[in-house]
Design goal:
The chain is an alpha/beta fold. Helix content is about 40%, strand content about 15%. It contains 28 helices and 21 strands. It has a 7-stranded parallel β-sheet. Helix 1 packs antiparallel against helix 2 (about 40-60), helix 12 (about 310-320) packs across helix 14 and helix 18 (about 455-465) runs antiparallel to helix 19 (about 470-490). The longest helix has 22 residues, at about 40-60.
Length: about 775
């Protein structure tokens, strides 16, 4: 394939970049500030230096338009809430007294004031803070962060492009504030919000911005005619402002659908579209709409969400087609590079053959600049890069690492009977009640207990060979003893071993499965200062040996109460990993499910009566378009059932989900056929309990009563109030009492206090129940 040079030189850009720094300097500085060891000035200095390093690296790599404003101490949606002055009433005094502490209070809460609700950013594992808006919300512009970072970038001599969450997406992602009238829709505040955006745009222009990017990913979801009309009105208003920079409206993660012709006709200077994965349909839709005459098109042709080397020739072919559809075509990743690790070159322990297949943020910027050069100068200018890319793609496609005939044969032999428990729930529930002998409102936790500094030090000591395996395992045994002892004293009914041996709920399993590999520096932000290292699923998956039986049975030997076996489900294993892109996700999910099925059988054979298979990512991975959801939910729920359906009726299967909009998947939750499900509910005030009741969910459920992502400790009265609210929707014989999520990120003092209050609340409410 030969591509002729474009009429206008294509520019290379990205929409956002990893925030944490090469050694997670931002995380360490923020957590040091929370603990009083780092001053506010020192934190700001660290953040400024990280921003400057990012901008310099991007510019040096050939990125000509450098994003600003995407950097955040916690979350870019929370930053937008500050920018438009939509501070919840309960946090206004704190923000007024100290804007930085008030900002973190909105994110994390305080002992006296709860935080904003947190949920997943579309179908990613990134979490954002949900804005709370009501009919009395007054918006006021505060562009200091945005103009400040723009000024910093200009001082470096780079070409900056401020990035803002667009007004449509901001309102569509918001929720009614507590006390708002029933049926209130935040989108009705659009006309009140637009003047604030106008002020911010004018401030950015005055500070030197030529272009401003307005992100509107909410438009790739199914939208009503009224919502689309509101977005059309918004961009008609912003586009006709006289005092503004040029506007680039960006979408990503999926195809724009009915929003595309609206944005194409809007009086803005450019659109940024995703052309990867499910968003590839944007190409035909753009052509059908007549293209973007007179406008700039930023084409997202390098996948910003996976870590595989791009097919440069395929991307160039897409770019060549787009040249005829816009006045100017520039090259970008499909979305912000926030969702991938920083640099594959930092990995020292990955097989060099596989390392060649990987592309993290820094490698993706090289791919983008290479494509921009090829588009601007013709393919002859990048002939060497194309030849090297073809060799890498061919090596991966033919590598024996990617295929295991035995795994494939087993997956193909699965039948419908393998994916259904033979006994109906009613019979299983009776057998479990008789076997477990639990009280009404049984108490438990979700799995992990605090990962203390001592535990992290023990792992570091083992890696550095300062202690041997025997010494490390003795520390793990002691931690499990302490966790079991505390739970017994606190009065919990179903115990956990606390997972002290696990570095991460996905990575721990990936390190023991064939076909998976772990990174050492592949950190990706999940929320705030929580970073994870997603494993890489590079080949066919199998489990050669038991993974959790040893420590689960050790814990069970310490107590007469049941101890849960803790596993991570197949969909979450995929969602929180970087998954191979050379076969359907359903095929990989089935392979993982079979490996977990073996682990479930091993746990049951070892005497484990309660087995929890977590699927927090079931909702997260839900396709953004309704038309694509049935196929996904069919294979996703089947994979869970395949993993869990081989057990006896008296073995109780639990699952867990957190921080998502569960109402969208209640039918799928039912189809999992788990005996018990625990869900996040504290921040959303038991909303999910009502959603389960409205669906007629017939099994047991534990809506969370303790928000573990906040340092505040709920007292027993607060927990009891949530339980009473839960009982309005779920009968006592089917209601469990548990935190929202695992306790890994919390400290021991707050964990002990909160769980003691949880048990006390359960006893109080249990005593209020009528005699059975």
């Amino acid at each position: 394939m030969t591509t002729k040079p474009a009429a206008a030189a294509a520019r290379a850009t990205v929409y956002g970049y990893p925030r944490q720094g090469p050694r997670r300097e931002l995380k360490k500085a923020i957590e040091g500030y929370w603990k009083g060891r780092v001053s506010a000035d020192s934190l700001r200095s660290t953040a400024a230096e990280l921003r400057r390093d990012n901008w310099r690296r991007l510019a040096d790599a050939g990125i000509q338009d450098v994003p600003t404003g995407d950097f955040s101490y916690y979350d870019h949606v929370l930053d937008t809430t500050v920018m438009v002055g939509a501070i919840p009433e309960r946090h206004r005094d704190a923000v007024a007294a100290d804007p930085l502490d008030g900002y973190f209070a909105m994110a994390r809460g305080t002992q006296d004031v709860p935080p904003l609700e947190m949920t997943k950013w579309f179908d990613t594992n990134y979490h954002y803070l949900v804005p709370e808006l009501g009919p009395d919300t007054v918006f006021t512009a505060d562009s200091s962060k945005q103009t400040g970072e723009l000024t910093e970038a200009l001082a470096l001599g780079v070409t900056p492009r401020p990035v803002l969450v667009g007004p449509g997406t901001y309102l569509l992602l918001s929720k009614p504030a507590p006390g708002a009238p029933a049926g209130f829709e935040p989108l009705t505040l659009l006309d009140r919000l637009l003047p604030v955006y106008a002020d911010v745009l004018a401030d950015l222009r005055a500070a030197g911005a030529e272009w401003v990017q307005l992100d509107e990913p909410a438009l790739v979801q199914d939208r009503t005619p009224a919502e689309l009309a509101a977005v059309e009105r918004a961009y008609q208003a912003l586009g006709t402002l006289t005092d503004r920079p040029k506007l680039l409206v960006a979408s990503y993660f999926d195809r724009l659908g009915d929003a595309l012709p609206i944005l194409a006709a809007a009086p803005v200077e450019g659109l940024a579209l995703d052309f990867t994965g499910p968003a590839a349909g944007n190409l035909d839709a753009l052509a059908a709409a007549g293209g973007l005459p007179g406008k700039r098109l930023v084409a997202g042709v390098v996948n910003g969400r996976n870590i595989w080397v791009a097919d440069l020739e395929k991307a160039l072919s897409t770019l060549g087609t787009l040249l005829g559809l816009a006045d100017r075509v520039d090259v970008a990743a499909s979305c912000s590079l926030l969702h991938v690790p920083l640099d594959a070159a930092a990995e020292r322990d990955i097989d060099p053959q596989i390392l060649r297949w990987l592309s993290f943020a820094r490698q993706k910027t090289t791919e983008i600049t290479t494509l921009a050069r090829g588009l601007a100068q013709g393919t002859d200018a990048i002939a060497a890069e194309l030849a090297a890319n073809r060799a890498v793609l061919s090596a991966r496609a033919t590598s024996p690492i990617t295929r295991d005939p035995a795994v494939r044969a087993r997956a193909e032999a699965v039948t419908g009977a393998d994916t259904r428990r033979p006994q109906p729930y009613e019979r299983r529930a009776a057998a479990q009640r008789a076997h477990l002998g639990l009280p009404l409102l049984p108490t438990t936790t979700i799995g992990s207990f605090p990962q203390t500094a001592e535990l992290r030090a023990a792992r570091a000591d083992l890696r550095a060979r300062r202690i041997d395996t025997a010494g490390y395992e003795e520390r793990i045994r002691q931690e499990i003893q302490d966790v079991i002892s505390f739970q017994e004293k606190a009065g919990l009914d179903v115990l956990v071993h606390g997972e002290p041996e696990r570095n991460d709920m996905v990575q721990y399993f990936a390190e023991q499965l064939t076909g998976c590999l772990a990174t050492q520096q592949g950190w990706v932000q999940s929320y705030g200062t929580r970073y994870v290292r997603p494993p890489i699923l590079a080949g066919d998956i199998s489990g050669p040996a038991p993974m959790t039986v040893r420590w689960t049975t050790y814990a069970q030997a310490l107590t007469e109460r049941p101890v849960k076996g803790m596993l991570t489900g197949p969909v979450t294993m995929l969602a929180w990993s970087f998954v191979r892109d050379d076969q359907p996700l359903a095929d990989t999910a089935r392979q993982v499910a079979l490996a977990l099925r073996d682990e479930v059988a091993d746990l049951e054979a070892a005497g484990t009566s309660v087995i929890q298979v977590d699927e927090p990512a079931l909702r997260e991975t839900l396709p953004l378009r309704a038309a694509d959801r049935p196929a996904y939910l069919a294979w996703a729920t089947e994979a869970f059932r395949l993993a869990t359906s081989g057990v006896r009726p008296e073995t109780q299967v639990h699952t867990h989900m957190c921080y998502a909009e569960f109402g969208d998947i209640v039918e799928a939750i039912d189809d999992l056929d788990a005996d018990v499900i625990s869900l996040e509910a504290a921040r959303s005030h038991m909303q999910v309990a009502g959603e389960l009741a409205a669906h007629g969910y017939p099994r047991e459920a534990g809506p969370g009563v303790y928000d573990i992502h906040s340092p505040r400790v709920p007292d027993a009265d607060e927990v009891a109030a949530l339980l009473r609210k839960g009982l309005e929707a779920i009968p006592a014989e089917r209601l469990w009492v548990n935190p929202d999520c695992g306790l890994k990120t919390r400290g021991w003092p707050e964990t002990k206090a909160a769980l003691e209050n949880l048990v006390a609340a359960a006893r109080t409410v249990r005593a209020e129940l009528p005699p059975s």
